[in-house]
Amino acid sequence: MACPYFIPTEKFLEGAWPHRSRLPLGDGWRGLCTASADQQLVPTDDQLRDCCNLGYARQCRRIPDPHRFDAVRFSVVRDREQRVHICYVLEASYRPGTHGMLEYDAASRCWTAPHPDPRIQTMAACYLQAYLERRQSGFADATSPQNPA
Questions:
Q1: I need a surface site. Which of 37, 78, 85, 130 has the fewest CB within 10 A?
Q2: 13 exposed, middle or buried (CB, 10 Å; 0-12, 13-18, 19+)?
């Protein structure tokens, strides 16, 4: 799960994750913390590794109180005919909360069903980018639900 207050901006290539493709956003990312309504902060490398890319927001001392969600998950549920469908789930207290589907049209290179929150949409775009890079390089599992045999 990634922190819902995190806005990824670039890949965090120096991150020492053993299985980068298993990270919630499909890879490690650098970015900005938007938990404070006043300012965007640049997290440290440790915060990026332990919280922003891999953790519940409520573990972070910056999380606003009250807050609606602690984490966000993404999953490609369908990749067929130039359309990629991504399921998202926003969690609160380790329970699913808001959820829905996003859709990307690879032929026109645009989102036909984006998320209304720009932070969540940016995370979805990063997740999609990592997924498409894996798929293009042949690392996507050919028997997964995203790529039915």
A1: 37
A2: exposed
